[in-house]
Amino acid sequence: MERARKRRSEARRRSPSPEAEGRAAAKWAKPDRHALTAIAALVLVAYFPALGAGFTNWDDDRFITANPLFQGPIGAYVAAALTRVQFQAYHPLHLLSYLPDRLLWPGSAAGFHAFNLVLFALALTLGYSLLRRTVGVLPALGAILLVGAAPLAVESVAWVVGRKDVLALLLVFATLLVEDRQPRTRASARAAWGLAALACLAKTSAVAIPFLVFAWLHFARQASFRDTIRRCLPYFAIALVFALPVPFIWRHYHMLPSGRPLPVLLDVLGTIGVYAGRVLAPVHLSPVYPAMAPGQVIAALAVAAALLALAGSWRRLPEPAKFAAVGFVGCLLPVANITPVYFRFADRYALLALGALAWPVAKLLAWPKARKVVVVLAPLAIGVELWASMQLVPAWHDSLALWERATEAQPRAVYGHLKLGETLRAEKRYREAAASYIWAGDVEPGGIKGPAGLLRTVGELAEAEGRLPAGTCDQWEQVIADPGFDAKKMGVLIEALDQSKCRQCAEAMLWLGIRMYPQSDSGLVSFAKRELDRDRPDLAMVYVSEVRDRNTPGLAEVTRRLGEDSPQRH
């Protein structure tokens, strides 16, 4: 009893008085106000053009403008959000986050964008508050501004439907703030678990949150390994609950490709390496990427070497470096193509990993030995990032700007050309749309989406010019989608189109038919000869353009008869 009283007396003596706490609060109130003003100013300067942007055809239509649930009764929308898997995921909090927009500015894209900016500024504010607990005002502010100004964050913030990533970042920072509370109580622990669950309900990749909690407790707060694991167990349980159903949902919605471009280990390491490269050098950013990113193999080897180096020097590494390794890699694991999906890479996938680097960067900025260098380099880095982000934000102004930027940045990304073709076709710029679909078909040998888009485009042009009856394109799609449709019926359809006023339609239909019902190279050459004998060189050229082996017997003769050394399609 006497010993307990002495401990309590000593604790009271060492604890600051209310007056001292008030003076400390006053001391930091002004810098904190200035810091929050700086965060708001950064977000506004970087993303101001987004306030004048509209909705795009990159899921904004599916989620909002063309979503009958969103346009219908609010009760039905809420019920569907809570009880259904929608848009290939279960993310009710993301869907429910659009209710304020629905109530306040249902038809105003500016309102949706403004709300995204507010959420992002709030997420950065929570991140700053977390960092501020372990470093000074300026290091915490500098680190969080580097995260906020990063070009990798532009997609998540400037894109309306990118809100799910911003929400996840906000809730992850909130989870860490509550978990870090001292003294820790049952109520605060439960609140932190609830926030972690909400993060997963906003974005499934937030299942990486156990890695961040572990890194924060063990490396930032120096908790023992045993205590850290004990406190992380509930987060691992939450992550499993949300992660386990995901592959089954993706398989149900046919989001899993038939294969992967690299062996699984190289693929996963290469994906992590690609994102690490995007953080260090955010160039050629795009909403879509090719299935195999440029330099992915080299990135995989670099990551493997880095992991070996980390393992060999782990005990000697400073705590911020360990935090960066665990937090960054942990946040990328859910999007590292362990289970590959159709869209294998996306800038928005890296937002949480970017946030995980905030504390290591803050500790670096607080390093006394680097103070003189930091004073110069940190503002310069923030300025460069801000400038780069300001160049990217206008790309999200509308669908045309978005897909023109995407195809310029990543010309090998098939989906970008398909969406550009769709956008141009909607604007009745048929010839430009046709060029995009042809490019998509060339980039993806054997793919049918490019030829199908081209067929739709030339068909709509023929309808607009009166060469085909209105509704013909819809009839084609219904006929081709019929389960009984086969190569023979495709041939009949091509013959009929060849006699119509739209010869381009016959060429496009033939191109689609070759992709749907592949032929050998020798067969393609034979068909090309037949078309030449029937005086149909345009159709012969389509066959020749699909020959893969340019040494196929008879191809040189067909090429000579066509009068071209290198046949061009359409």
Q: What does the model show?
A:
The chain is an all-alpha fold and 570 residues long. The protein folds into three domains: 27-394, no CATH class; 413-518, Serine Threonine Protein Phosphatase 5, Tetratricopeptide repeat; 520-570, no CATH class. Helix content is 69%, strand content 0%. Helix 11 runs parallel beside helix 13 (209-220). Mean pLDDT is 91; it is low at 1-29 and 565-570.
Key attributes of the depicted protein:
single chain; 570 residues; mainly alpha; Serine Threonine Protein Phosphatase 5, Tetratricopeptide repeat; 3 domains; 31 helices; 69% helix; 0% strand; disordered N terminus
| Major sheet summary line | none
Shape: elongated
> What is the helix fraction of residues, given as a range?
55-70%
Note the beta-strand portion.
under 5%
As residue ranges, the low-confidence spans are 1-29, 565-570
| pLDDT averaged residue by residue | 91
Summed up, the helix count is 31
Task: Supply Rg.
Answer: 28 Å
Strand element count:
0
N-to-C CA distance: 94 Å
List the helices and strands and how they pair.
Blueprint lengths: L1 H13 L3 H30 L12 H6 L2 H4 L2 H10 L8 H5 L2 H6 L4 H24 L4 H13 L4 H5 L4 H17 L6 H17 L6 H12 L4 H19 L2 H7 L11 H17 L15 H18 L5 H14 L18 H6 L1 H8 L5 H22 L6 H11 L4 H13 L3 H14 L5 H16 L7 H10 L5 H12 L4 H14 L4 H13 L3 H9 L9 H8 L8
Helix pairs in contact: 2-8, 2-9, 2-21, 8-9, 8-11, 9-20, 9-21, 11-12, 11-13, 12-14, 13-14, 13-18, 16-17, 18-20, 22-23, 23-24, 23-25, 24-25, 25-28, 27-28, 28-30, 29-30, 29-31, 30-31
